[in-house]
User: Fold this.
Amino acid sequence: MARYGMLINTKKCIGCYTCLVACHRQNNLLPTENFIRFEERETGTYPNVGVENIPLQCMHCEDAPCAAVCPTGATYIGPGGVVAVEEGRCIGCKYCMAACPYQVRVVNESTGTVDKCRFCTVTATDGTKTCSCVEACLTGARTFGDLDDPESDVSKAIVELNAKPIAGDLTKAKIFYVR
Amino acid sequence: MTFVPVWGGIIACYLFLAGLGGGAFITASLVKRMHPEATGVVRVGRVIAPIVVIVGLCLLMVDARGGLYNPLRFVFLLTNPGSVMTWGVVILAVFVLAALIVLLMDLIGKNEAPAWLVWVGNVFGILTAAYTGVLLGVVNTFPLWNNALLPVLFIVSALSTGMAAVMLGGLITCPEQVKGMVDLTKVHLVLPAIEIVLFFFLLFIVAHVSTAGAASVAAMVSGGYALAFWVGIMAVGLVIPLVIEIRALRSGDNRGLAIAGDVGVLIGGYLVRYIIIVAALPVVLL
Amino acid sequence: MSEKAITRRSFLAGSAGVATLVAGGFVGFGSWKQAKAAEKTEQPVLATAHSMCNACSSKCGFTAYTIDGKLRKLIGDAENPMCKGKLCARGYGYSQIAYSKDRLTDPLRKNERGEFEAVSWDQAYSEIAEKVASIIGSDGPQAIAAVQDPRPSGKYYTTRFVNALGSANVYTHAAACDLSRASGFLQTIGASTYSSDIVNSKMTMFIGRNYADAIRPSSVAQLQQAHESGARIVIVDPRCNNTIAFADEWVPINPGTDLALILSMAHVLVAKGLYDQEYVKANGVGFDDWAAKLVSYTPTWAERITGISAGIIERLALEFAEAAPAASIEQGWRAAIGSAYRNSGETARAVCLFNTLLGCWNQKGGALFTSTVNSGALDEGRFPKVPKPAVPLLGLDDYPLANPATGSVLQAAKLAKDGAIKGMFFYQSNMAAGYANPAYLAEALGSLDLMVVIDVQMSETAMLADYVLPDTSYLERTEIPEFIDGMVPAVALRDQVIDKVLPNTRPVDQIYGELAEACGVGEYFPFTVEELADAQLRTVGLSLESLREVGTSFFADKAYAYGAVPIWNTPTGKIQFTSDACVKAGLTATPEWLAPSVMPGSDDFRLIGGKQPIHSHTQTTNIEDLMQITKDYDLTRVWMNADRAAQMGISDGDTVQISSSVHSGTVRVKVTERLNPTALWIPSHYGCSSPEQHTAYGVGLRQMDFVPFHIEPAYGSAMTEEVIVTVKKVGA
Amino acid sequence: MEDEALFSVISKCFAPLGETDWNELTERTLWTDFIDSACGASQDERALGPEVRCDGGGGEGRLTLFRKHRRVTEIETLCVPPTYAERRTFFARHFTGGLPESALPIESLYTEWSDAPGSCFGRQRGLYLGDSATYMRELVERMGLRVPDGYSACPDHLALELDLVAVMLRNGIRTEAHRFIAERFRWLPDYRVRLIGIQDDARFYIALIDLLICIQVREDRRMRTKTVAERNVSACQREETSCQRRQ
Assistant:
C-alpha cells in the first residue's frame, strides 16, 4: 500500500494563491472554505530582508491528533495514509480543529461539518493526474507521491533537498517542507 | 491569516453549565450531610444539577451544526473510546441519569435515594467538572489549555459555581434554611481564594513556557480581554464574593449582599470558561 | 368560474396554447439529484474547447471542460506561449463571471431620474444612432471617440466601428499603463517594446516590473528558469515584492528616481570605457551629446537622489559590463517607466540607451525583438476597407510623443470636458475607476452628449453612461484570432466554451455590427466573426477549424534567430541618443535627469500602487472566491516601512487616515521591512464604488482617488504616483 | 377560479407580458375572480385540498388573528394590480440584472449552485444556472414541453415554475404538482427578503410571494405528515370555528 505525501518547497513559493483557488474549483468549496492557509514570514531588517511564503494544509499525520480526538470516528486514517473525513459521521463539534496543531481544518458553513485537504488525486475519479494544488502550482513548488517508493519524485526530492515536516516529529506529518 | 478561536460563547456556556451541574449535585449532598433539616436547599441543588447539564448538552448540540442538521449522527458519539469527548458523553450521561433518578425519588418522596446512587452522582459530578477541564487540557495546540492546572481550576470553579447556584436558589426559595449554614459559608469562602491562587499559578506558568502561552496570557491580563478578566473574573467573580462572605462571617447575614455575591460567582464562572476558550492562542510551528 | 383564454395560455407550451404533458416525466428533485450524481460518476460526459482567459491582458490559452453545458474545469494549455500549461488564481477565479448574478442582462438606458432602466436592443440602437448622427451633424465625426482595453475582437470591432463613422479617435488604457514606455522606446529604438532574454542572460535588471504579483505564467517560469540556471536577477523597486523569490538582490530605490540610477550606471560605463563602443558607433546617433551630459551623473550624485549607495550603483554597473551582452534592463511595463512619474517617458528612453551601451540588442541573453506574424490582407469584397478618417487622432497635438497606436486617453477626457469630443464608446474599459482621478473623470465624461458602455457588469464607468449594452462573457463567444510575438510566433483563439448564459446579452462583434447598421454604416460589417476569423487565419495558412482543434498554433518557419541587426524604425534610422521630436515636445534632446513633479518630505509619503496576484486592476474584485482571499488575508492594507511606523507610533494592523490634496480615507496598515521609507504602498485593485458589484463594493481604498488629475508632459500618461500623502493614526 | 388558473395568473405577474395581455389579465371580472381564489388559498386554506394547518396549542387564536389581519392587507394590495406602465417601470428596474436594485425572481440566484461532486463553483450562491435550473430544464423536457428561448439562462424563473404547476394541475397530475410546490418554492423566503430590500414599492409582488409561501408551507407539511394531516382536519376546523366566535 502506498503512503502518500507531499513536498512543498517554500523557496519556490511566490504566495500567489493559485493552488488555493484551483483547490476550490476542484473540490467544490465555498469561498470561505480554505484547505490551504498561507503564512508569510519576513526576516531581516530594511533593506536586507527576506520573505518566505509558507502554504499549510492537512499534513496527513500518522499520529493524527484530529483522528484521535474525533468522538464519532468521522475523521480516520484511510487507504494510502490519507487522513479523511466521513461527512456523514461528522457532527461538527470542532474538537479536531482545536486539536490540529497546524490549524488547517475548516468548517463548511453550509453543512456545519469540518473538512480539510483530501489529497484529492487519491480519490479523484475525473482523470485528475495529481493533486489540484500540485497541478496548478506555477513554479513547481509542490511534489506529490508515494513516500514508501524510494523512486518516486517526492521521495527523491525529500532526500535531495533535505525536506522536513514543518514541526519536526510532532505528529509524523507527511508534508515535507524545504525552507 | 489571523487566528480565529475554534469555539466561542456557546461551548463556554456548555462547559460552565456542566461544571455547575456537577458542583450543584455535590453541594446538595454536602448540605444533606451537614444540615439534613435544610431539605429545601437540598432539593434546589438536585433540581439544578440535571437540568443545567441537560441544557448544556443541548447547547453543545446547537454548536455542533453537522449533528444539529442530522441528529442521527449523534449516535456515533460513542464510537471512539480514545476521545475525551466520548468519555465526556458517557460521564455526562451517567451523571444526568443518576441525578435525575435521585431527583425523582426525592420529589416522589416515598423512599430516600439509596446512598450508593448519591455517591455515583457525587463521583460523576466531580468527573463531569473534571471532564470540562480535561477536554481542553489534552489539546496540546494551546499552552493555555494544555497543562495539569486547568482541570483543577475547572473543578474548583465548578464546585464554587455549583455551590453559588444552590445558595442562590436557597436564598430565593427558602432563605431561612440558608441562614444557619455558617460552615458551608466557610467552604464557599475558601473556594474563590483557592481559585485566585490557581489562576495566578496557571497564568504564571503558561506565560513562561512558550511564546504562544505568553501571548495568550497577555491577551487576558493586558490585551483585548483585560476588562473581562479583571472586572468580570477577578473583581465580580472572585474578590467581591470573597469580601461578601468574609463580611457575612463577621457581621452576620445580609440576604441582598449574599445574592449579589452568588450572582457574581456565576458570572465569573462563566467568564473563566469563555476567556480561557477565546484567549488561547496556538503554538506557532513555523 | 370565469376562465379566460389568457389564464390557459402557458409559457412552456410555446405558441400552440394549452400544453399536454407526459405525466410519467415527473421526477422529484431529490431523486433527480441522485440519478444525476450516479450518471456523472459512471460516465461523465465531458466536452472540451480551447479558449483564452480574460482575467488579465495576457490571454492565456486553456482547455475548458464542461459537463451538461456547464463549466467544470479549466486546464492551461501546455502549448500556449503565455501560460505554458498553467493558469493563475485569477484565471480560475474569473471564470465565475459567466454565471455571476451581477451580470448585466439587458440593454440599459439612464432615465431622467438618473436611474438605469432596461430597454430593448432596437430602442437602444436607434436612440444611440440618433445621437451619433446629431453629434456628427453638428461637430463632425471627430467628436466621436472610443476607448478599449485591447482584446482580440474588441480591438478590431471598436476601431472598425469608430473609423466607419469617420473618426480616428480610438484610445486604449495605455495612458494609465505603458504609454510612456512605448512612447519613449519609439523615440530611441523605433519599436514600442522588446523582450529581455532572461532565461539565457547572465544578468537582468527589473525596474518596477514584478512577475510574481502581476502574473503571466510563462514569464514566471522563465524567471525561475533563469534564476535556477544562475542568472543574476536584480529587482529595482521601492517594495520588496514577491519576485524576490527568484532574484538575487533587491535595490530599494526611492520611488520616482529610477532615471537617476540608470543615468548613473551609464555614467560608470562611459567613464570607465566599459560600454560596447563599436556597437554604439555603428547603431547610435548623438551618443557624444549624451556622454557629455552623463559626466555629472556620478554614483555619489545618484546616491542622494535614489537612496542607493554609490558603491552599489557602481557595482551594478560593473556587473552589467561583465555580463554584457548577455544582459539587459528588462522592458518593464506599467509603474516606473510606464505611466507613474513625470520622468517615466525619459526613464524609458534611458533604459533603451543603457541597453545600447551593453550592445545587447538581439544578442543571446540580451534584449530581443522577437518575431511577429500578423493576418495578411483580406478580400475587400467580403471585408470592405474602411476609409481613413480625415482628422487624425485627437490629442497628439498636445502630447506629440504619445504612441499614436494608443493615444492619450486622458487628453481625450480633457477634450470631452472641453466639449471637443461629444460622444464616447467604451469596451471592456473601466476608465472612470482605473485611469486617473475618478472625480475628474466623472465630471469630464459627465459632460458628454452620448456615452455608451459595453461590458459584462456595472463598472464605475458604466455607471456614468447613458446607455449600457450587455456583453457576453469571454466564455460565451468566439473572437478573432490573437497573434502572439515570441521566439516562435504563434496564434491562439478564444472560442466559445459554454452557451450564452443570459439570452439577451450579445457578443461584442454583434453589438458593433448592429450599432453600425443603426448608424448607417452597416456596409462595413457584412460578415460574421467566424468568417472574419477564418479569413484572417487563411492568410497565414490556417483555418478556424484547424485552430479550434489545437487552440494555439506556431509558425515555426518564422522562428526568431539571434544576431540579426534590427531595423531602427526611427526618423534617423539609428538608435537615437538625441531626439529632435523630444526637443520639439519641450524636453531635452538626450534623456537627462528630470525630477519627479513632487517629492515627499520627512513627514509625508509618496503613495505608490501595485498589484496583488489575485486581482487584475478593478476587473476581478467582484469575484467572490478572489475577494474572500482579500478579506481572509486583510489584503486591502497599505504597507508602511517599519522604521517610519515606529517613529509615528503606528503598529501593524492599526487604522490610519491617508490624505492627499484631493482625497482622504482610512485603512489598516501593514508594517513591514519590505518597503522604502519614503513610500506608502497601496494595492491598486480596491475601493469599488459601484453598488451593483455586490462583492467588490466598498472594500478598501481606491488608489486613483488620491491622485490629482494631471498628465505627463509630452508623453500624455497619468503620472499615477505623483502624489504626496500624509498619514495619521486614527484614534491617536 | 381553479387552482391552475390561480398559478397561471401569478406566473404572469412575474413574466414579461405585452400591454394587451396584461390588460386582459387584470380586467375586472378575471382579476376579481383571481382575488377570490387568492383569498381562498390564503384564508380558508382549502385551495389545494384538505386543510392541515396546526399552529400548536394555546395561543394560536391570537396568532391566527394576526395572520388573518396580515392576509387582509395582502389581499387589499393584490386587489389593485399595477398598471401596465407601472409594471413596465418595475420590471425595467428590478427584473433586470446587474443593477443595484435588481431582484430577479430566479431560484438559482438564491440557492446553492450545486452540491454535487464535480461542479465548478460548488455551494456558492448568487450564480445563474445552478442545479435548480438544470433540474427545471430537464423536468420540463421530460414532460414533453420546452423552455422558451427568453428563459434559457433561467429555466428556474419563478414564472416558469408557477407555469409548470398550472400546466400540471390542468393536466390532472395533482400529486406531482403538490410535491413540486413543496420542493421548489423553498427559496421564496430568501427572495422575499430581497424584495423588501429594494427602494421601490414592491408590495404587490411581496403579497404574491407571501401567498406562495403560505401555499408552499402547507404543501410541505402535507407532504411530510400526510397521515397525521388527515387526522388533524377536524381539529383544525374546530379551531377555525372557535376563532370565528372570538371575532
